[in-house]
Design a protein that fits this description.
Number of domains: 1
Distance between the termini: 48 Å
Strand content: under 5%
Helix content: over 70%
Oligomer: single chain
Order of helices and strands: HHHHHHHHHHHHH
Number of strands: 0
């Protein structure tokens, strides 16, 4: 637990200096697109086009993660640009981050079991088609168990929140678990040449069954990142105001 909050405190230090106006603007642009993708997911779901509903919720998670990275400068712009749709390098880099690994260990300890958040297997899950297909075909119960870790970990870590930024911590946790649940669907939901076919996206597929739960957590992640953006805008405006006052 102490390692987790040592890592989080280092990340929190990044907020001491407000991000540049460019980073704030790009983060907001990505988050606005994430909201559009989430709406598209819901519209496709209502139209019973379940493969595209899964595609758009994955895109919403990805763009929310990009907004998070852009704002905090966790990854440089080149690393983010290199992220491809076919290989979700952004999500791989998320689980490679030291504080994300700490979250993975915490999730494992809270759940008492090995889960898909085990970061030691992250590389093989991303790179191996069979492993990706297993994630894509997770039953609803397994997906819900992963997402149910979020409130469990929030309760465990609540005493530490006065020392950190709650939105910062919980957004990372939510995005980490949402990434693990959704990343294979970018490809499988749209292309017929994969192990998992678009026709398999029926009301019986686990991700489809759990879709409303995934939406709820994605909406919360978007809200948390928006809070971080708004806070950055406010701090930057205050800093500018103080600098003007000193200039007088």
């Amino acid at each position: 637990m102490s390692d987790l909050f040592d890592d989080i405190s280092k990340l929190t230090e990044k907020l001491a200096k407000p991000p540049s106006q460019r980073r704030i603007r790009e983060a907001q642009d990505n988050l606005d697109l994430a909201r559009q993708d989430l709406m598209s997911s819901k519209l496709n779901y209502d139209a019973k086009i379940f493969n595209l509903a899964c595609y758009h919720v994955q895109q919403s998670v990805e763009k929310t993660a990009k907004a998070y990275y852009k704002l905090l400068g966790v990854l440089d712009d080149e690393a983010i640009r290199r992220t491809s749709h076919d290989t979700p390098e952004l999500f791989l880099r998320m689980v490679e981050l030291p504080w994300a690994q700490s979250f993975g260990e915490l999730a494992k300890n809270v759940s008492g079991t090995q889960t898909a958040t085990d970061t030691s297997k992250a590389q093989s899950v991303i790179d191996t088609e069979v492993e990706r297909a297993k994630i894509a075909r997770l039953p609803s119960a397994a997906i819900n168990r992963m997402l149910d870790l979020i409130p469990q970990i929030e309760r465990v870590t609540a005493p530490f929140f006065p020392l950190t930024n709650k939105d910062l911590v919980m957004a990372l946790l939510r995005l980490y678990l949402l990434a693990a649940v959704t990343f294979p669907h970018e490809r499988y939901s749209r292309y017929a040449d994969g192990i998992v076919k678009p026709r398999e996206y029926t009301p019986k597929l686990g991700i489809v069954v759990s879709m409303k739960n995934v939406w709820n957590e994605t909406e919360t992640a978007i809200s948390e990142v928006q809070q971080l953006i708004d806070s950055s805008k406010h701090r930057k405006a205050n800093r500018h105001k103080r600098s003007q006052q000193h200039a007088k």
